[in-house]
Design a protein that fits this description.
This protein is mainly α and 281 residues long. It is built from 13 helices and no strands. Helix 11 runs antiparallel to helix 13.
């Protein structure tokens, strides 16, 4: 069972927590909306896992010659390609069925965002990940789609400031991943030849500045007058991420989160503060 959990990368489902943002930000905590959003989380997670498996199948030979990726279930032989295809088929069918249960309609905007996420990732995997800037833009699109998918599930609009915050935060994290890959000798992405650390550092600084500005504007837009107090927590969170990214051999934010307890504690404190202010108070 452990090999299949590793195959579908359950720990990366944390990223899909963005689906809950529209629910929290709109204060529409009806029983129907909560159930629909929870179902949407699993629908999106299964779709994301389907994409992970397809990527691993496609890159299996390349991964077997990689010092770290060779330990992935398919590359290591722990899971056969045939079984992986069966799991992937089950995941995408289940994702679409759960989405149907969440929306109660066959064709809806939420399904459009779910399929758009699939198309974006297929484009990324089958060539566009080798085009500089476009590769990071597609990674960023995945995070933005998560937010709009969550909003479509419960039929609420997405704040402009929230959209701009997520957009720039996603760009920042995507560029951070590329920055770390530039320094890792065992990473052989062709697109890395088009990047340099100076360019990445400059644009990361711009994105982080915009994240703090747009997030601050979003907090002031809300009815909760003390929500702005979350800004220092967010700044500390990004400071920790930057520090650990520089000293670690990993650039993936989820991996860093599990590697460093202090980063996880800050993230939990931020989440707890937001829950208390936006739901309880």
């Amino acid at each position: 069972m452990k090999r299949y959990i590793k195959l579908i990368r359950v720990k990366h489902w944390i990223k899909n927590g963005l689906i809950f943002l529209p629910l929290f930000c709109s204060f529409t905590f009806s029983k129907a909306n909560i159930i629909s959003t929870i179902l949407a989380f699993f629908a999106f997670s299964f779709m994301a896992s389907f994409i992970y498996i397809i990527n691993d199948i496609r890159d299996v030979e390349k991964d077997r010659n990689h010092p770290r990726k060779k330990n992935r279930p398919i590359a290591s032989g722990a899971v056969s390609v045939k079984k992986a295809i069966f799991v992937a088929t089950f995941l995408i069918i289940t994702s679409l069925v759960i989405n149907l249960l969440a929306t109660r309609t066959l064709f809806n905007p939420a399904l459009g965002f779910l399929l758009t996420y699939l198309i974006v990732n297929v484009c990324y995997s089958f060539g566009m990940k080798n085009i500089p800037i476009v590769d990071v833009a597609l990674l960023t699109a995945g995070f933005v789609i998560r937010v709009y998918y969550g909003a479509a599930i419960i039929s609420v609009p997405v704040s402009t400031w929230l959209f701009l915050t997520i957009l720039n935060a996603s760009l920042y994290l995507g560029l951070g991943k590329r920055k770390k890959e530039l320094k890792i000798k065992d990473e052989v992405r062709p697109v890395l030849k088009s990047y340099n650390e100076n360019f990445i550092n400059n644009f990361m600084n711009i994105c982080l500045t915009l994240v703090i500005v747009f997030y601050s504007l979003w907090t002031m837009e809300q009815a909760d007058t003390i929500l702005y107090l979350s800004v220092p927590l967010l700044i500390v969170l990004f400071m920790q991420y930057m520090l650990f990214m520089e000293t670690s051999d990993e650039g993936d934010p989820i991996t860093l989160l599990f590697q460093h307890k202090s980063l996880m504690i800050t993230a939990l404190l931020y989440a707890l503060f937001m829950i208390v202010v936006m739901i309880i108070l």
